[in-house]
Amino acid sequence: MLRRRFTLDELEKMTAAGILEEDERIELIGGEVVPMPPKGNHHEVLKAALNWHWARRTPDHLRFVPETTLRLASDSYLEPDFVFFDKETGIAGLNAETAHLVVEIADSSYAYDIGRKAALYATFGIPELWVIHAVKLETRIHRKPSPAGYQATSDLSADRRLVPAFCEHLAVTLGDLDLR
């Protein structure tokens, strides 16, 4: 059976025409529309705590945006939980070349996020990717991207300090967050 590949432009037109809902949880990977699972409560609580933490600590020259469409190519985009970039880049200029750190929060999608999605981020040269397991509060940090995947990964528990390579002011210890 032949599969139809789509472009980002085509999906945007389908959304404008009402074929796709504006808040529909999908990503586009190599032209394939990939449905995303619903977010669980652990995901939302952790995302809110990280948003609060980073909003208070982000230096003036940097910005971050939660749940944005990160355009990687004409046939690929992902919707990470957080993306960090330089202020002067602006959201309009945000892409794989301008992103410093991408953070994915996962529970049921953890294996997918550290597998297929991590490989995609590496292929496009995202310098640093964190995949945080929302229930276990364990983080896999990916660094040194290459077309073959990330060349350096490390797994850190909730009591370990997570420090972005590009800005230590954004460090966080998940176990210290208020997760109520």
UniProtKB/TrEMBL annotation:
Coiled coil: none annotated. GO terms for molecular function: endonuclease activity. Keywords: Endonuclease, Hydrolase, Nuclease. Residues 9-164 form the Putative restriction endonuclease domain. It comes from the Bacteria. InterPro entries: Nuclease_put_TT1808 (IPR012296), Restrct_endonuc-II-like (IPR011335), Uma2 (IPR008538). This is Uma2 family endonuclease. It comes from Rhodomicrobium udaipurense.
